[in-house]
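Researcher: We plan to redesign the surface later, but first we want a full-length starting point. Tokens attached.
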């Protein structure tokens, strides 16, 4: 199959590491068969620092960007774009700016599938990216290529909303080798690992894959929420 015929996936996420946590298994499974483009709306680091620590912020942003490129390269993805919106402050940006970024990416890449955040994530940046994606993917001449819009679960955000927890209705079965590659790719984000009793680590990723597999009668799976599916 030629590159022109390959299914094209646009991954729209708030911060570097959301991509691996949300879709790392899918990428590991299909990186040799499908095309992937990843865009990060924000940098994911500055909210951890005092505003006076500008040199530390810049260093951490650069470090996280390098982690992201290495993690995605490990999975075979090289088409990555970074945008400079401030972590934790997407709500201070006119949402139209974010919508236009996503619209342009859709126009240029012409994806068949879109993966993004879920509206019920606790992280406010995630919610804004979801809202912007929904507007950018509304029916129109530049969204004709889109067949699927799926939201993903992000450990430490989607799973911690106890009132409206992530409620998947679409599953991608995975082999253990895919989960191991997902975990290895997340290992590049060494600054984002949590302690073993929290979910964002090797054990959390592996156990979630087992749990989602049980929900769809497979050994391992990655789960999503289908917002839109077009059947041709």
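Model: Full-length starting sequence:
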């Amino acid at each position: 199959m030629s590159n022109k015929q390959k299914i094209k996936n646009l991954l729209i996420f708030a911060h570097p590491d959301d991509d691996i946590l949300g879709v790392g298994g899918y990428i590991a499974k299909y990186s040799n068969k499908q095309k992937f483009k990843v865009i990060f709306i924000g940098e994911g680091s500055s909210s951890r620092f005092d505003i006076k620590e500008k040199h530390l912020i810049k260093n951490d942003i650069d470090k996280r960007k390098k982690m992201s490129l290495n993690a995605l390269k490990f999975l075979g993805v090289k088409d990555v774009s970074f945008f400079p919106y401030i972590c934790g402050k997407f709500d201070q940006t006119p949402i139209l700016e974010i919508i236009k970024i996503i619209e342009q990416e859709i126009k240029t890449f012409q994806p068949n599938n879109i993966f993004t955040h879920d509206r019920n994530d606790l992280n406010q940046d995630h919610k804004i990216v979801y809202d912007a994606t929904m507007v950018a993917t509304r029916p129109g001449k530049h969204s004709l290529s889109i067949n699927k819009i799926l939201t993903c679960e992000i450990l430490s955000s989607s799973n911690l909303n106890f009132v409206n927890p992530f409620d998947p209705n679409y599953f991608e079965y995975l082999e253990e080798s895919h989960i191991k590659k997902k975990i290895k790719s997340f290992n590049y984000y060494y600054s984002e690992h949590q302690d073993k009793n929290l979910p964002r680590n090797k054990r959390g990723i592996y156990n979630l894959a087992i749990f989602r597999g049980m929900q769809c009668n497979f050994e391992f799976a990655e789960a999503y929420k289908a917002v839109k599916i077009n059947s041709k």
